[in-house]
Design a protein that fits this description.
Low-confidence stretches: 1-10
Number of strands: 14
CATH topology of one domain: Rossmann fold
CATH class of one domain: Alpha Beta
CATH architecture of one domain: 3-Layer(aba) Sandwich
Strand order of the largest sheet: 3-2-1-4-5-6-11
Strand content: 15-25%
Number of helices: 12
Radius of gyration: 19 Å
Oligomer: single chain
Bound molecules: nicotinamide-adenine-dinucleotide, uridine-diphosphate-N-acetylglucosamine
Largest sheet: 7 strands, parallel
């Protein structure tokens, strides 16, 4: 594979932490298509090797996978010793907001300590390019929409705080060593699945997020959707979000890597909103999913969920201007692909 012009030096690989997860697996396909080589590092605490096997089928190549935890310094050191790692895409982390309120220490340990150990090892082995998965949750309840990257940061739960703290850690790291090239991607609401229907989101237990919940209603696993609040100040009273197709999101990582490896990289422009710029309500999504699946989606409007906000959607212009990235997939495609994955795999990756 040709890597000289992309990865900075020939033969060097991208370390993808959390690469067996939902966004990671989709990103592996985009990396492969773009000619990047990678190694996956994941402790499989929220994923399975079956997902990686499916990616292997899609790309027609074996994947180099090392099972390990980001907090395990020795294993990471060994990995960096044995491979020429040119850059890191850091997906690994725990991500359930509600669970983070119940288990804050686990979240701080996993997400923050995991990142600290990873950064220490990267520095030790002189690997100084990193892409970090942040979240729109760092904007808290925004004073206006669309949200630009310079909006004030503020978050209301331990999960969100881990993202915010890690962003600050990365900024401090750059101040201490300006050879670090850091890109922070703030994802809005990733949904959908690869068009093959072979990989997708596979939540444990009852889904917290809207799209996987609707999918399970459509496939008959759940009786109805509870819509959290019908009295928000939005076009139909239900919450509005910026849903982004996971394949568009995966492509944003390729564009961000191209950017980090290019001479155009500028730390002043290194934090990007990754969204579509469009806001859809819960009822809009129910309608689109019903059309895509040709299934009824029974719902009940119930009281608001604690911590939810009325409206959240991105201004994604900076990513377009600097990374040359723009989301292209419609809400209809998001629902169709999500439905294909759900109906082909009613039990996710479990047989
Ligand atoms: P995911 O849970 O599917 O993937 C995360 C992966 O990281 C899993 O495979 C898990 O096993 C692994 N992991 C967790 N802790 C680890 C550790 N200490 N060491 C090694 N591996 C570990 O989640 P995802 O949806 O693919 O999210 C990827 C990243 O994007 C996360 O950092 C998440 O916080 C962030 N993010 C996700 C969303 C979303 O809605 N999915 C939105 C914004 C940001
Ligand atoms: C949630 C997280 C956020 C994270 C994001 C990633 C919370 C409070 N926030 O955001 O930190 O970055 O996921 O995707 O969990 N809804 C229902 N019924 C349901 C589920 C959701 O009505 O069963 C509504 C919600 O009230 C919201 C919309 O659907 O209006 C989207 O919810 P969800 O998918 O959970 O995402 P966010 O709350 O935006």
């Amino acid at each position: 594979m040709v890597l000289d012009d992309k990865n900075g030096c020939s033969m060097s690989k991208i370390l993808v932490t959390g690469g067996a997860g939902y966004i990671g697996t989709h990103t592996l396909i985009s990396l492969h298509e773009a000619g990047y080589e990678f190694i996956v590092y994941d402790n499989l605490c929220n994923s399975s090797q079956e997902a990686l096997k499916r990616v292997e089928k899609i790309i027609g190549e074996d994947i180099e996978f090392i099972k390990g935890d980001t907090r395990d310094k020795k294993t990471l050191q060994k990995l960096f010793q044995n491979h020429d790692i040119g850059s890191v895409i850091h997906f690994a982390g725990l991500k359930a907001v509600g669970e983070s309120v119940q288990k804050p220490l686990e979240y701080y340990d996993n997400n923050i300590n995991g990142t600290l150990v990873l950064l220490e090892v990267m520095k030790e082995y002189n690997c100084k390019k990193i892409l970090f998965s942040s979240s729109a949750t760092v904007y808290g309840d925004p004073h206006a929409t669309p949200i630009t990257e310079d909006f004030p940061l503020n978050t209301t739960n331990p999960y969100g705080r881990t993202k915010l703290f890690i962003e600050e850690i990365l900024r401090d790291l750059y101040v201490s060593d300006d050879e670090f090239e850091i890109v922070i991607l703030r994802y809005f609401n990733p949904v959908g699945a690869h068009e093959s229907g072979m990989i997708g989101e596979d939540p444990n237990g009852i889904p917290n997020n809207l799209m996987p919940f609707i999918s399970q209603v459509a496939v008959g696993k759940r009786e109805y959707l509870s819509i959290f609040g019908g009295d928000y100040d939005t076009h139909d009273g239900t919450g509005v979000r910026d849903y982004i197709h996971v394949v568009d999101l995966a492509l944003a990582h390729v564009k961000a890597l191209d950017y980090i490896n290019s001479r155009a990289f500028n730390i002043q422009h290194s934090t990007f909103n990754i969204g579509t710029g469009e806001g859809y309500s819960v009822l809009d999504i129910v309608k689109a999913y019903k059309k895509a699946s040709q299934k009824e989606i029974p719902y009940k409007i119930v009281k608001r969920r604690a911590g939810d906000i009325a409206k959240c959607f991105a201004n994604p212009n900076l990513a377009k201007e600097i990374l040359g990235w723009k989301a292209t997939k419609t809400i209809e495609q998001m629902c169709l692909d999500s439905w294909r994955w759900q109906s082909d795999n009613p039990n996710g990756y479990k047989k």
